[in-house]
Write a sequence for this structure.
């Protein structure tokens, strides 16, 4: 290797082999500018090759488009992100074109499926759920269509008159005073011609009773002024697709104050077990014959006594088999014992030879069911302990005439809990 000549006096000495970094500085052609590429200006080591260029970044929009397309959360958004990603890739030289194209393809498929679902009604259920949630969160005091009332809504009727065709009501807090409280709703079977107000009212009398008992399981806690009530479809609203009956508790006189709701979501297992048994017995006893005297329909009263005996037998078996909390069984046991005695007497009344025989056994059944035993059991379980004001007993244990007047003007006999018959208004659009 040729060794360069020594530097002129006063010039810095170039590094020699074995000194410094050991790399000689290559000679420069006359007139060539500066050092070679890779050669440092401060006399450091010289690299004969330039550094590799840095790769451009991957487009974040392209990645977002692909993720959105895979998850199918909002398909149109994936399309927009993919299009923006391709535009930025072309403009700024970023990477990720394949990711953006894949995201656009997946989002296109998702968008097509979304449009098909909307057109065919596949999302109607989800839309109803969304609408229900929106309506439930609507501020109190707002107006709401009678076509759109929901379970748990408390409302006032314009003018305070319930029994009429109503377009909308005013939603108010249940804690304050109000005309009515919705206990639930059901759809009238059939999608053909309007079945008529009488037919719908008959179904409402039967179906609303079940909804009311599930909504307010402790009937002793329901105020006396809270009567069964319902809104039924009018001929006009039926033609518009409204086939729903809305059931409620309402007051024809003084307004209700505070919610009557006490259902399975707010009660403990011991309370639910007791109330189910008590309600089943009351429901059986409420279905007494229409005749005022046993002499007028002995056969009907015997059949009624048989149904009551079977209901009591089923409920005493369930109460005996239930695993009560410590202390609860002791308080409930006298009530159960009374039901067992009453059950045997109702079974004898079911085969009574004459009216006097029926009166004797039904009276004994009444005497066996001591209200004091029920009050003690209720107090131990944390339930209402004040009996309904209509409880006074009558004719052979068949119960009082109670409840509100039905749509046909007849009274319900239920021993103080009502037979579910109620008055109602119709909905308008």
């Amino acid at each position: 290797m040729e060794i360069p000549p020594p530097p002129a006096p006063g010039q810095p000495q170039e590094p020699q082999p074995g000194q410094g970094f050991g790399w000689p500085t290559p000679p420069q052609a006359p007139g060539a500018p500066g050092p070679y590429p890779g050669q440092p200006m401060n006399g450091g080591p010289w690299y004969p090759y330039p550094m590799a260029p840095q790769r451009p970044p991957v487009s974040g929009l392209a990645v977002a488009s692909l993720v959105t397309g895979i998850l199918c959360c909002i398909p149109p958004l994936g399309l927009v992100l993919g299009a923006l990603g391709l535009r930025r890739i072309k403009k700024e030289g970023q990477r990720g074109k394949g990711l953006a194209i894949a995201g656009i393809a997946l989002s296109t498929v998702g968008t097509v499926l979304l449009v098909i679902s909307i057109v065919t009604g596949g999302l109607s259920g989800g839309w109803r759920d969304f609408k229900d949630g929106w309506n439930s969160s609507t501020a109190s005091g707002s107006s709401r269509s009678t076509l759109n009332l929901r379970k748990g809504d408390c409302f006032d009727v314009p003018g305070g008159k319930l029994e009429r065709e109503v377009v909308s009501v005013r939603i108010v807090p249940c804690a304050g005073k109000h005309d009515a409280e919705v206990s639930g709703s059901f759809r009238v079977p059939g999608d053909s011609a309007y079945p008529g107000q009488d037919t719908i009212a008959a179904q409402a009398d039967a179906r609303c009773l079940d909804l009311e008992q599930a909504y307010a399981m402790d009937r002793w806690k329901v105020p006396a002024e809270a009567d069964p009530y319902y809104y039924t479809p009018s001929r006009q609203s039926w033609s518009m697709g409204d086939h729903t009956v809305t059931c409620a508790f309402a007051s024809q006189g003084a307004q209700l104050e505070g919610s009557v709701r006490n259902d399975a979501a707010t009660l403990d297992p011991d309370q639910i077990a007791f109330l189910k048994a008590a309600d089943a017995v009351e429901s059986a006893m409420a279905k007494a014959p229409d005749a005022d005297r046993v002499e007028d329909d002995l056969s009907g009263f015997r059949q009624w006594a048989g149904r009551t005996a079977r209901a009591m037998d089923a409920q005493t078996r369930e109460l005996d088999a239930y695993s009560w909390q410590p202390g609860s069984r002791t308080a409930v046991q006298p009530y159960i014992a009374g039901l067992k005695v009453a059950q045997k007497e109702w079974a004898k009344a079911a085969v009574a030879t004459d009216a006097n025989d029926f009166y004797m056994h039904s009276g004994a059944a009444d005497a066996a069911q001591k209200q004091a035993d029920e009050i003690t059991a209720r107090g131990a379980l944390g339930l209402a302990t004040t009996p309904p004001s209509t409880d006074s007993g009558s004719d052979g244990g068949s119960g009082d005439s109670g409840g509100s007047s039905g749509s046909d003007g007849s009274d319900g006999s239920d021993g103080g809990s009502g037979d579910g018959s109620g008055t109602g208004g119709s909905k308008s659009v």
Notes: Confidence is low (pLDDT under 50) at residues 18-23, 121-140, 391-420. The longest strand covers residues 180-187. The two ends are 105 Å apart (CA to CA).
